[in-house]
Amino acid sequence: MTWAASVKVLSSQQGWLDLSTKSGAVERPLLDSSPVDAMVNSVSLAAGEYYGQITVTAASDNSPQVVSVLLKVLPAGSNVGPEVQPSGLVFTAEQGQAPGSWGSRPQWKFR
Hints:
Largest sheet: 4 strands, antiparallel
Number of helices: 0
């Protein structure tokens, strides 16, 4: 299955959000993955909140999928607080079955 992704920036400042690749393919949908990195360039951004969307389309019943992006740029010298990893989880399962990771506990890392 082939897929395509696009970026839409919802704030007035453009160019801060991009993707490592904007298209790809998987041979076995729901089993294979096609990694994509969302890249943020905050160097020229003033302190504030910036919004964007990543839209992924494919030839499937649940297409498109939209990911909301919020970038919060803090003033210089701010305490950014702890970093939590992973910041998201993906669960997959066959219809009528529990996800393979169901019941397991995620491993969180704080820095």
